[in-house]
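Exam revision sheet. Question 4 asks you to relate a sequence to its structure. Input first:
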Amino acid sequence: MIGPMRLAAVAASLLMMVLAGCQTNDSLDGVVRTNEPSKGDVTSFGDAFDGLKTVGDVEYHASDQAVAEAKNQFRAENYGNAGALFFKATQLSPNDGNAWMGLAACSDRIHRFDLADRAYARALKLVGPTAEYYNNVGYSYLLRGKLQNARSNFLKAYELAPKDPTVANNLKLLSSSVQNIER
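Answer key, structure tokens:
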């Protein structure tokens, strides 16, 4: 009985050594990626994979669908619905600067300037001082009646994007607001 058990132990250790020696050098991190095409592979249509995006190349954010729906609601002037969808997008993806900018713009339109200020502060950290940011903040101040603050933000936007028609239109709107003050 000792002979067959000894033979089984020797066979098992030999098998372990053989299996331990089996490694591939295809991947440095030990992960096999089956969705990545190899150089020279072709699609089922005979096209080369060069230039085609694979799953690893595609950027997807959980907030994409909410942002798309929110933009449609904003265009339809349903600012409350758009704001709710932009808020949902900020919860799904807290680092989505476009969602924060949209939330701020919706908050401006429903005159919730306290929420707009918080959303603009977060957007500035994420998107930086862009022409779109300064233009939106300027419009926010215009809606509040703070024309000096609106002007300084519109001018910053104009410096960053002098050919942007939206910025130019907002500067014209500001100048007409100054000339036609209603009390």
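Marking note for examiners. Residues 22-28 have pLDDT under 50 and may be disordered.
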